[in-house]
Amino acid sequence: MQQFSTTESETRDAATAATFSLDAFDHDAARRDGWVISDCGSYRDGAPRIELQKFDNPEQGPPKFRDDRAAWSHIVACARGGSVLHMRALDLVDRRERLAIEAAFGPW
Predict the structure, then answer these.
(1) Could you tell me the superkingdom of the organism this chain comes from (predicted)?
(2) How many Å apart are CA 25 and CA 50, to the nearest integer?
């Protein structure tokens, strides 16, 4: 997992690294699975904000998950089962999102 610092220069470096990693992520596979990993900008302290969210696309019918928490549960379960896509997604989320997911579903 990438560690994000709150110092200004290190935060910029971490944000740049996260952006490059997000560019290489298989977003199409995640959407087919019913969720997305989103670059939501930055927190007030400048740390990158990368979240896992349910995928809403009215053109493809109702979402697979009722809310983000349900998507988190699925992603953690798949990561525990060895899915590289799901483990990679969990590696890319920001530190605060990771703590929230771990608090809800435990470590993977």
Answers:
(1) Bacteria
(2) 13
Instruction: State the pLDDT confidence band at 21, using cuts at 50, 70 and 90.
Output: confident
3-state secondary structure the chain: CCCCCCCHHHHHHHHHHHHHHHHHCCHHHHHHHCEEEEEEEECCCCCEEEEEEECCCHHHCCCCCCCHHHHHHHHHHHHHCCCHHHHHHHHHCCHHHHHHHHHHHCCC
| Furthest-apart CA atoms within the chain: distance in Å | 43
Per-residue tokens: 107? 């470590």
CA 29 to CA 35: how far, in whole Å? Answer: 9
Report residue 68 as tokens: 């983000």
